[in-house]
Amino acid sequence: MINRVAITELVKVIQEPKIIFNRFDLMFGGDFDLLKVDEFYVPLRIKKSKAVLGLYLTKVSPQAIEELIDYIFKNYKKVKKIEFKHCLTPVPGVKPAPHWHVELSNKEDFDKALSNKTRYNTKWYPKKIREEVGEFEIKHFSKDKISQGVVDKYLEFKRKTHEFEWKKDHDKYLDEMYITDAYAMYIKGEIKAIAFMVTIDDEVFLENLTYDVELSKYSLGSVIYYHALIDMMEKGIKKVYLLGGTLDYKRRFNGIETQTYTGTVRKPNMLKYWFNELLYKINRCEVNEGE
Q1: Distance of alpha carbon 27 from alpha carbon 30, whole angstroms
Q2: Count of CB atoms situated within 10 Å of the CB of 175
Q3: Which candidate, 206, 192, 146, 137, places its Cα nearest to that of 171?
Q4: In CA terms, which of 2, 57, 202, 280 is 20 to 30 Å from 232?
Q5: Distance CA 179, CA 200 (A)
Q6: How far is CA 209 from the centre of its chain?
Q7: Using CA atoms, how far apart are residues 79 and 264, in angstroms rounded to an integer?
Q8: Which of 203, 280, 195 is nearest to 235 (CA)?
């Protein structure tokens, strides 16, 4: 049985993990619904013809997924598609894909779990940067300390590495991507690599990292990423979530792979849907009468 419930103290009923994609209260204020599936609570956001569910790295029964899909299409008439992001339960019509996260404890144990090559490179690349490019430092900034210059440089790097264009005002990027923390690498006083994070309690989502492609042979991305992981351990962070993909750093630095389901379920032909449901009910009645 699925039903809507009042959105009160969502933090106390939201499923784990506490990643931003499950925190609809932080993303949308009160502009979402909360569905109760048995004893499970699922946030639901409706925007025009699209529905989004807060089921990131969350395990429910396959039956619950089917009931949710059925409930949404029946009760939200304008919805034409439902989006799932890295759900642990199989979703009808959606293929599995890898998701990555890192579990943090202490530097000694973390380094011990690295491959010999990766452990060596955590020292070799910083040494080469200092010898061939110049002295560097990596600074951490909380959101209120992230300057517009850091955001501008980040977007500049992303245009070069991924042809990424942010079509809105630069000063809106931090708010719209829910950024809470940044790490910036300075070489001779100039920013050469940046990592943006979203922190909730003792868990972090790595929103993205980027670097100056002219220095790509020095693996600036790996250097700033490793530095951020060690710094987060010292701050008591327990997990870092990295989304999916095949980028090597996600595996190399003790990444843990999980198969998840990310994709869209589209509304079926409703005339056919209702006809099949009617047949199902008729057949069920005939079976009951036969008993």
Answers
A1: 9
A2: 9
A3: 146
A4: 57
A5: 11
A6: 14
A7: 12
A8: 203
Distance CA 59, CA 37 (A): 12
pTM of the predicted protein model? 0.86
Of 75, 53, 24, the closest CA to residue 261 belongs to 53
Q: In this predicted structure, what is the pLDDT of residue 291?
A: 45
Residue in this structure with the two tokens 């900034």, named with its chain if needed? 141
Q: Residue 3 corresponds to which amino acid?
A: N
| DSSP for residue 189 | T
Positive or negative: CA dihedral 87, 89, 94, 97: positive
10-residue mean pLDDT series, the chain (291 residues):
70 71 89 85 93 93 93 94 96 94 96 97 97 97 95 93 82 93 97 97 95 96 98 96 92 96 88 59 56 45
> b/e per residue, 19-36, with b = 16+ CB within 10 A?
bbbbbbbebeeeebbbbe
pLDDT at 37: 81
Q: Tokens at residue 270, please? A: 């409703």
Short-list 249, 173, 185, CA closest to 211: 185
State how far the Cα of 291 lies from the Cα of 282, in Å rounded to an integer.
15
What distance in Å separates the CA atoms of residue 151 and residue 173, rounded to the nearest whole number? 8
Distance CA 76, CA 49 (A): 9
**Helices 220-234, 116-132: inter-axial angle, 10-degree rounding:** 110
274: Cβ contacts below 8 Å, ≥ 6 apart: none
Q: Which residues contact 246 (CB under 8 A, 6 or more apart)?
A: 98
* 227-232 contacts, C-beta under 8 A, 24 or more apart: 227/138, 227/183, 227/185, 228/138, 228/140, 228/183, 228/195, 228/197, 229/102, 229/104, 229/110, 229/253, 230/107, 230/110, 231/140, 231/183, 232/104, 232/204
Question: Tell me, what amino acid is at 140?
Answer: H
